[in-house]
Task: inverse folding
């Protein structure tokens, strides 16, 4: 993302191959964000940028220090003029579009990072709130600015450190220090990855510093250059191959950015090294006019492409089609060229006789975004922007959920023994119905509770986020590691089942496809939970049918007389119906487009899990199951609205209203199935509000 020239190792003038290498980096990133299934490792383009930045910036600082003409004020002014003008334009566009288009929950997510972006601390904001590959982050139009935060922090620290290292007359000290710090930073990143600290390793400057230093090492070694065309061409070929290989072979589940980032960074360093004093044939493509052209606008293209994709998806309220994505990328390219021509270039060429005043004037607009982001966050998304009807739909995610969700649904904290009872005496330690599962179990609980109340039964809920109701299951989340509390809650449930002679019904409910291996594929917004078998010493994938069979056997071994129902997967939609309706009301569109969803993805995810459940129950015929997709979906569509009431509060969780309307019938069907014709006629589920 840097466009400076020169350095001790590249002082002969502007290197076109570096512009071409920037083009490779930015196109990899753009392709990954647009088509992640086709370019699964394109996120390494950021690492390539970091190596380029380290090479160029270190070269500038070291050369000017050696010549006795380095000025901190001039350096920071040049950095600010390079980065801030286009950055401010894009931030202003993001802020304006967010206030116009985003619903309150989304705008709340934008507020904190927007305020942080005014201080170039966006990477810190995402470290504390999200991981890069989590759904909340993947829907944020500011996510890509984390790399600008890391880069600015490099600019603050590295010049000061180089100043100290330049006090000695022995220039090899700088080289040794760069190598030592590079190894230390890489080791820290790898250690964090091995200790469930991948989010920190991904976003923080200390664990990314080694990538800048990989380029800085080259810049500090002016005599370390290719000795001939053979070595230069070999380095160019190997370097580009390493970058392309990383783009093709890595994916969001790869532990990153430790050792797995080494190939792409080494590839970038080799490509840079191959061009020191030479123009090898291996990198001729990088020096071509198209590559150089893309490289020149790479910074603006990087800034524009991600918000264009995010806002396009928000406006459509569905997954974008390939042609729509291509159109948004074309728009991003046009905006990038315009920004480069009319913002970047004029600002960089302006004279600055008073550097202090010029630096202050350049940086001062950033404070506006601190002031804008704070109210977005603290008002929970400026809900007064919306009409009352749009606001009502937008707030369903908070208003039409299990009324005791905050109390009963736990995420990352232990489950209280005998806690979260419904309809039981305060001092009672037993209950009639046990609901065990994850957030989908919590979402279904209002309906199960209504069913239980009709029989005068009490209920106990045990629901943990991301934890399947399975014995011996290690739930592993990408970039996080094993989710805490899953195995402990399973042990607690088994003890309670064994100790409760009053128990009549056990309901296992979960987002089963999430725990069914890696198939069907989950996109970046819905990363898979990898379930491992805790009984084996190695990281063996725990097949869902085997895990459920073992769990049902463990329940039977307690001696309980309770019946068991496995509530199958609720169809996972391609959009959030509540957000779709809210957006339709906000933009004065027809709501009927939100009343059903294409069935292809919901069924492709539900059916493998339903088959695994069926295999597990084949040997436990007293256990019953019900598959919601059979009632909610045809082969072409799945309903989202029934009798003018939204059945979901997001794209895969039942609303409390939906649970109360649907789940009692599902339990009746599971425990005493009616005749198929009667079930279809009485369900009313093919008559949504049209």
Result:
């Amino acid at each position: 993302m840097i466009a400076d020239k020169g350095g001790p190792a590249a002082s002969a003038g502007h290197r076109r191959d570096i512009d071409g290498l920037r083009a490779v980096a930015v196109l990899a990133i753009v392709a990954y964000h647009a088509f992640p299934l086709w370019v699964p490792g394109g996120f390494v383009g950021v690492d390539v940028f970091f190596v380029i930045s380290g090479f160029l910036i270190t070269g500038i600082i070291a050369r000017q220090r050696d010549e006795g003409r380095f000025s901190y004020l001039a350096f920071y002014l040049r950095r600010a003029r390079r980065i801030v003008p286009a950055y401010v334009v894009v931030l202003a566009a993001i802020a304006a579009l967010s206030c116009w288009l985003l619903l309150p929950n989304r705008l709340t997510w934008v507020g904190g990072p927007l305020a942080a972006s005014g201080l170039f601390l966006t990477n810190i904001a995402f470290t504390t709130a999200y991981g890069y590959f989590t759904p909340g982050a993947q829907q944020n139009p500011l996510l890509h600015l984390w790399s600008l935060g890391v880069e600015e922090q490099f600019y603050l620290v590295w010049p000061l450190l180089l100043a100290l290292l330049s006090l000695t007359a022995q220039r090899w000290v700088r080289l040794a220090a760069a190598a030592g710090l590079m190894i230390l930073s890489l080791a820290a990143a790898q250690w964090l990855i091995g200790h469930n600290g991948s989010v920190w390793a991904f976003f923080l400057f200390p664990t990314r510093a080694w990538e800048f230093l990989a380029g800085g090492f080259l810049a500090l070694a002016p005599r370390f250059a290719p000795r001939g065309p053979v070595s230069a061409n070999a380095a160019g070929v190997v370097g580009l191959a390493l970058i392309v290989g990383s783009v093709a072979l890595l994916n969001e589940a790869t532990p990153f950015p430790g050792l797995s980032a080494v190939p792409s960074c080494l590839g970038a360093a080799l490509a840079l090294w191959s061009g020191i004093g030479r123009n090898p044939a291996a990198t001729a493509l990088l020096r071509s006019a198209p590559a150089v052209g893309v490289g020149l606008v790479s910074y603006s293209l990087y800034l524009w492409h991600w918000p264009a994709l995010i806002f396009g998806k928000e406006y459509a309220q569905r997954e974008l089609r390939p042609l729509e994505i291509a159109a948004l990328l074309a728009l991003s390219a046009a905006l990038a060229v315009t920004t480069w021509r009319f913002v970047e270039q004029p600002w960089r060429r302006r004279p600055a006789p008073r550097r202090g005043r010029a630096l202050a004037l350049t940086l001062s607009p950033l404070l506006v975004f601190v002031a804008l982001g704070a109210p977005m966050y603290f008002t929970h998304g400026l809900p007064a922007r919306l009409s009352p009807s749009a606001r009502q739909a937008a707030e369903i995610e908070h208003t039409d959920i299990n009324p005791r969700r905050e109390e009963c649904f736990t995420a990352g904290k232990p489950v209280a023994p005998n806690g979260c009872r419904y309809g039981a005496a305060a001092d009672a330690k037993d209950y009639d119905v046990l609901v065990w599962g994850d957030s989908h179990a919590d979402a279904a609980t209002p309906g199960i509770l209504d069913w239980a109340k009709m029989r005068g039964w009490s209920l106990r809920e045990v629901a943990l986020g991301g934890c399947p109701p399975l014995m011996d299951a290690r739930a592993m989340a990408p970039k996080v590691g094993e989710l805490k509390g899953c195995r402990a809650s399973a042990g607690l449930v088994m003890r309670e089942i064994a100790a409760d002679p009053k128990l009549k019904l056990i309901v296992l409910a979960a987002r089963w496809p999430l725990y069914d291996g890696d198939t069907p594929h989950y996109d970046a917004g819905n990363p898979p939970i990898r379930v491992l078998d805790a009984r084996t010493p190695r990281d063996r994938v725990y097949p869902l049918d085997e895990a459920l069979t073992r769990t049902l056997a463990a329940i039977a071994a307690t001696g309980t007389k309770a019946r068991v129902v496995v509530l199958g997967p609720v169809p996972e939609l391609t959009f959030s119906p509540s957000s779709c309706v809210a957006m339709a009301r906000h933009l004065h569109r027809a709501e009927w487009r939100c009343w059903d969803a294409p069935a292809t993805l919901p069924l492709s995810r539900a059916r493998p899990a339903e088959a695994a459940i069926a295999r597990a129950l084949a040997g436990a015929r007293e256990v019953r199951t019900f598959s919601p997709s059979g009632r909610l979906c045809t082969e072409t569509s799945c309903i989202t609205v029934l009798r003018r009431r939204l059945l979901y509060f997001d794209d895969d969780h039942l609303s409390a209203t939906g649970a109360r309307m649907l789940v009692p019938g599902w339990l009746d069907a599971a425990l005493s199935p009616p005749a198929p014709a009667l079930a279809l006629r009485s369900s009313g589920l093919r008559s949504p509000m049209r």
Remarks:
- The mean pLDDT is 88.
- The CA atoms of residues 174 and 374 lie 42 Å apart.
